[in-house]
Amino acid sequence: MTSRADQREATAAAFVSEARALFAREGYAAVPPARIVEAVGRTKGALYHHFGSKLGLFRAVVEQVQREVGARVAAAAEQHTDPWDQLVAGCEAFVAAGADPDVRRIMLVDAPAVLGWAEWRAMDEASSGRLLAEVLTELVEEGTLEPQPVEPLVRLLSGAMNEAALWLAEQGGEGDLEAVTAALRRLLDPLRVRPGGPTR
After folding, report:
1. Which end of the chain is more exposed for a tag (fewer CB within 10 A), N or C?
2. How far apart are the C-alpha atoms of 73 and 93, rounded to whole Å?
């Protein structure tokens, strides 16, 4: 027997799933609440009960997409044991995620405009930004990066990768992904302190 809590969870999940598909395909502004309600087979009252508004539902969709991107980044990094290799793999995974239509439209295009830059940045920092800060801190502590405040470096790299992911999504070509990956490696490599030699 399905409990009321399970029913509420299933309804909320259905709203997020249907709204995500619509937002990714058409964009936030083009999707009225009635379209979402119709797709889910519920009432507007149910939407507002679970999320407060269309904006609240969009926020839940963005959170889901960002969690998924964060999981991709973490999974790519965990394929390596060396922290530097983890950094490079995680950065490459984040940039490559821009090829996903959901990520491009929802996380990179609509989210900053709809939620506002400050809220979008806070959400980004809580997901992939947190992982980036952790590995950069480890690299500084072990001497692979020069001693330095980590926060400015997190901001610079995160900004560059967000822009690259958006550009890559707009281009949509495998060759562009290879070019971006190569450029990313050239950007990161001079930060690394080589044992027995100067930074290059």
Report:
1. N
2. 5
Q: For residue 149, how many C-alpha atoms fall within 13 Å in the half-sphere facing its CB? A: 4
Cβ contacts of 24 within 8 Å, gap of 6 or more? 101, 102, 105, 106
Which of 71, 61, 66 is closest to 18 using CA atoms? 61
Is the model's pLDDT at 174 over the cut of 80? no
3-state per-residue secondary structure call for 98-128: HHCHHHHHHHHHHHHHHHCHHHHHHHHHHHH
Cα–Cα distance for residue pair 156/135, rounded to 1 Å: 15
Q: According to DSSP H, which parts of the chain are helical?
A: 4-26, 33-40, 44-51, 54-77, 83-96, 101-102, 111-115, 117-124, 130-142, 150-171, 174-188
Q: What is the DSSP letter of 192?
A: B
What pLDDT shows up at residue 200?
43
pLDDT over 70 for what percent of the chain?
94
Mean pLDDT of 50-77: 94
Rounded Cα distance, 138 and 132, in Å: 10
pLDDT of residue 101: 81
Q: pLDDT tens digits for 76-87?
A: 999 999 999 999
